[in-house]
Specification:
The chain is built from 6 helices and 7 strands. By secondary structure, the chain is an alpha+beta fold. The chain is globular and about 45 Å long.
Length: about 220
C-alpha cells in the first residue's frame, strides 16, 4: 500500500481551505458591522432603541446561520424553500437602506407583484446584500448617487448609477481577490454568485448605460 502524499494536492487543498476561510470572514464582517452600527443608533436614540435592537437581533441570527451552515455552502444546492420573491429583497433592503442613510445615498425599490419561487431565502438575501454593498461602496462620494432594486417576473435586479466597471475588471469579475477598491477583498462577487447558484439561480452582469446592473434569474415554483 502506497502511503505517500501528493505535495501538489496538499498545496491545492490548503489553498482551497484558505479561500473558503477568507470568504467566511468576509461574510461575517458584514453583519458584525451592522450590529455595531445598530447598537450605536439604539444608544443615540432611546425612543427607537427597540427597533434598532430588533434589527440587531435579526443580524445575530444571520451570523448563527452563517457559522452553522458554512460547511454546506459549497457542497450542495439549498434551493428547497418556497416563498415570495419579494421576501429576500425586503430583508436586504433593511440593511442597505440603513447603510445608504449613513452615506447619503438613496436606496429605492420596486417590488412589483409577488411570485412564488423555489430557492434559498437566506442565500438570496445575502447575495443581494453583497451586490448592494458593492454598489454603495462604488457610489460613495459621487454626485446624486442612487441604488435601485426591483423585480421583473422571476428575476431580481440590482442597479446603480456609479462609475461602472473597467473592461479588464469585467473580464475577471468572479475571480477571487479581483477588486477595484483600495481596501477591498475581492470576495463579494464570487460569494454572491456561489450563493445564487446554490439557491438554484443564475447571476449575470447586464448591459447598462451608466453604473452596474446585476440580474438574478430564479425558477418559479411548480
Amino acid at each position: 500500500m502506497n502511503d505517500e502524499r501528493d505535495p501538489e494536492m496538499d498545496r491545492w487543498r490548503l489553498a482551497e481551505l484558505g479561500q473558503q476561510a477568507a470568504m467566511l470572514v468576509h461574510q461575517l464582517r458584514q453583519p458584525l458591522f451592522t450590529i455595531k452600527s445598530l447598537v450605536q443608533l439604539a444608544e443615540a436614540d432611546p425612543a427607537r432603541s427597540s427597533v434598532h435592537l430588533a434589527l440587531a437581533k435579526a443580524q445575530l441570527g444571520v451570523l448563527e446561520n452563517l457559522v452553522t451552515g458554512w460547511s454546506d455552502f459549497s457542497r450542495r444546492p439549498t434551493a428547497g424553500e418556497q416563498f415570495d420573491i419579494r421576501m429576500p429583497l425586503e430583508g436586504a433592503l433593511v440593511l442597505l437602506r440603513h447603510r445608504g442613510e449613513t452615506l447619503g445615498i438613496g436606496v429605492h425599490a420596486d417590488l412589483g407583484p409577488g411570485l412564488v419561487i423555489r430557492s434559498s431565502l437566506l442565500g438570496l438575501q445575502q447575495a443581494i446584500v453583497n451586490l448592494g454593498q458593492n454598489a454603495l461602496d462604488a457610489l460613495d462620494g459621487h454626485d446624486q448617487p442612487e441604488l435601485r432594486l426591483w423585480v421583473e417576473g422571476a428575476a431580481i435586479f440590482v442597479s446603480d448609477n456609479g462609475p461602472g466597471l473597467p473592461e479588464p475588471v469585467r473580464r475577471r469579475l468572479f475571480e477571487p481577490y479581483t477588486t477595484t477598491k483600495a481596501r477591498g477583498t475581492g470576495l463579494g462577487l464570487p460569494i454572491a454568485r456561489a450563493l445564487v447558484e446554490n439557491a438554484g439561480g443564475a447571476l449575470t452582469l447586464e448591459p447598462s448605460e451608466r453604473g452596474v446592473r446585476w440580474r438574478i434569474v430564479l425558477a418559479a415554483a411548480a
